Structure formats: structure tokens, C-alpha cells
Amino acid sequence: MDVQESSKPMIATQQEMVESKVPLAYRDQCAHLLIPLNKCRQSEFYLPWKCEDERHTYEKCEYELVMERMLQMQKLKQSNKQGQGSSIPLIPKTANA
Q1: What is the pLDDT of residues 60-81, one digit of tens each?
Q2: What pTM, to 2 d.p., does this model score?
Q3: What is the CA radius of gyration of the chain?
Q4: What is the DSSP string of 25-63?
Q5: What is the spatial distance between Cα 69 and Cα 76, in angstroms, rounded to a whole number?
Q6: 75 class by beta-carbon count within 10 Å (0-12 exposed, 13-18 middle, 19+ buried)
């Protein structure tokens, strides 16, 4: 389940995420931070001023993943501009185009 060229390793195992009932959409390289955050939220009745450290750590991890994906996309677009037509296009042309 590792993402190619990601600097962050997958720390939480599939079994840990299933036991903690982490939704599929949130099972990424930051899931190991989401598990204790959700436990804290449940124990503190989702009060917004509780679990601030855990939330900040999780959100920072997610932000870093997004920035990493943006950088990868930017590099992909630059390589497509340099080698026009030599690689597979991101959006295929339709038969009528």
C-alpha cells in the first residue's frame, strides 16, 4: 500500500487501521497519527480545545503529503512539456477530437 516516491513510510499496519476503524479514505502515511487522535477525541467528547497537539501533528503530516504530491505533479507536467507526445497523456483524447 506504499505510495510510489513518497518520503514518508507507512507506519500503521492494515490490521491496526481495521481495529481502530479508520475509514479507507484516511488510510495513508499519516494514519498512525490519526489513530491516537481519534482515541483522544472520543475520550474528550470531541471538545475542540482538547487534543490540540495530536490534531496539529496529524494536520501537519497531511499538509506535507499534499505538498509532496503537488511537487510530484509539477515535475510530471514539466517532463510532459519537455517530451511532448513521448509519454502517455494524463487526459486521453476522445474519438471525436
Answers
A1: 999 999 999 999 999 998 888 8
A2: 0.78
A3: 19
A4: GG-STTHHHHHHHHHHHHHTTT-TTSSHHHHHHHHHHHH
A5: 10
A6: exposed
